[in-house]
Amino acid sequence: MLDRWTDYLECGGQIDVVYTDFEKAFDTLLHRRLISKIYSYGINEIVINWIRDFLTARKFRVKVNLSKSPWNLVTSGIPQGSVLGPILFLLFINDLVESCDARSETYLFADDAKLFRHIKQIVIMDA
After folding, report:
1. What pTM was computed for the model?
2. Distance between CA atoms of residues 118 and 103, nearest Å
3. pLDDT tens digit string along 11-68?
4. What is the C-alpha to C-alpha distance for residues 97 and 93, in angstroms, rounded to an integer?
5. 11 Cβ contact list (under 8 Å, min separation 6)
6. Which residue of 42, 65, 80, 106 is surrounded by the most CB atoms within 10 Å?
7. Cα(117)–Cα(127) distance, rounded to whole angstroms?
8. How distant is the alpha carbon of residue 62 from its chain centre?
9. How far apart are CA 126 and CA 20, in angstroms?
10. Residue 90 pLDDT more than 70?
């Protein structure tokens, strides 16, 4: 991305950028919706079942001082710190690029997205 920006700036003009960071993206991703999207990409069912097994049947509880809550099932989110987590999230938001303006470029990495456009000249419209 930085190489692209450098090339654009050497041609003149400016680059307008929108930075996004999906808040709590890894915590709020719904497992069923992710699995559905993975199916839509035509990924092998054996791989999908492996991903489903990776995500489901996880439990959590909270500990405060010496007190512990009961165990609860995790119904959303991707395990943080996993190698697979960012890949799964990218599969989940991959169609975001299709929703953006074709004259702009989009770069995705984990829960961050950058949408930018090279502006060669500013056009002022008369009112």
Report:
1. 0.60
2. 9
3. 888 999 988 877 776 777 888 889 999 999 899 999 999 998 888 888 889 999 999 9
4. 8
5. 118, 120
6. 106
7. 25
8. 27
9. 33
10. yes
